[in-house]
């Protein structure tokens, strides 16, 4: 069997993805996560926090909720229906850190949780810090010109 024949066979046997339905679910569930974040900001504002502190508290709430749902194995169930809608940056990032920690907890806290927690999110952190350092250096140098 050639590579071309194999590709044709895979295409014939693979189920078609309902792209319209998937996009709709990603849109409304991702939007619902954003609405939850906005409700948190509004609620924390009514409790007396200023705009910046309310935003920080809302971010912390969403991260904690995402990690909790990941630990309870509910985040994956939501993601099955929402697809990319659960990748709203703050909740998706929290899930990317919590999921490997939960998965490798059987290997112990040091070689399991500690070593594997950042397998997915680690590169994002490293390149984000590197890019922000380069940007900061350029910004600082630009001030001398």
Q: In whole angstroms, how far apart are the ends? A: 64 Å
**Uncertain regions spanning at least 5 consecutive residues:** none
Query: What is Rg?
Result: 21 Å
Number of strands: 0
Describe the structure.
This protein is mainly α and 145 residues long. It is 77% helix and 0% strand. The chain is built from 7 helices and no strands. The protein has helices at residues 3-13, 19-46, 51-71, 75-82, 89-103, 109-116, 122-142. The radius of gyration is 21 Å and the shape is extended. The termini are far apart. 15% of the residues are buried.
Compose a concise summary of this entry.
With 145 residues, this protein is mainly α. The chain is built from 7 helices and no strands.
Which features does this protein show?
145 residues, mainly alpha, 77% helix
What is the strand and helix layout of this fold?
Blueprint: H1 3-13, H2 19-46, H3 51-71, H4 75-82, H5 89-103, H6 109-116, H7 122-142
Helix pairs in contact: 2-3, 3-5, 5-6
């Amino acid at each position: 069997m050639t590579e071309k024949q194999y590709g044709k066979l895979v295409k014939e046997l693979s189920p078609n993805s309902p792209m319209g339905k998937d996009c709709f679910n990603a849109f409304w569930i991702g939007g619902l996560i954003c609405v939850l974040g906005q409700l948190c900001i509004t609620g924390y504002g009514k409790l007396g926090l200023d705009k910046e502190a309310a935003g920080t508290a809302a971010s912390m709430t969403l991260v904690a909720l995402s990690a909790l749902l990941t630990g309870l194995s509910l985040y994956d169930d939501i993601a099955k229906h929402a697809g990319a809608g659960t990748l709203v940056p703050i909740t998706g990032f929290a899930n990317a850190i919590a999921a490997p920690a939960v998965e490798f907890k059987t290997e112990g806290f040091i070689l399991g949780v500690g070593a594997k927690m950042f397998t997915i999110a680690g590169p994002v952190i490293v390149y984000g810090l590197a890019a922000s350092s380069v940007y900061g250096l350029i910004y600082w140098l630009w001030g001398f010109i």
